[in-house]
Protein: Prepilin-type N-terminal cleavage/methylation domain-containing protein
Amino acid sequence: MRTSAAGNKPAQTSSQGFTLLELLVVVALIAIATAGVSLSLRGSADSALERDATRLAALMETARAQSRASGLTVVWRNTPTGFVFEGLPPPGLPQNWLNDSTRAAQPLAVVLGPEPLIAPQSIALVSTQGTSSIWLVSDGLSPFQVQRSPGRTPP
Structure:
């Protein structure tokens, strides 16, 4: 007959199942994988358009600040391949889109200063790869903001 030392249990040959910790680890891994897949499925054209809109809003505010600091009138115009900030001293600001498929929906010019208050402005950006559009909107006093529709800027 076999005996064991005090405090030792004999080895069990049957399976006990999974522990709660093992199940939690598996569920967490599945959740992380699902989140990664859902983020990667977002439309690349929409992401690129939003990235260009956010960058253009920052460039508009930079040009507006430079115009107010220098006292020079700065005008933003779109071109067939990008855009241009007229009136800034060299080297100026970037003049191209990050994505080749981004375009301004209509030809227009936006006067950015040197006055602290400009007329309300809205610029529609579209992607040539899709049907999506995004707007840059300013009420003339507040900074340019990126919006999905051309509505008024929030207070």
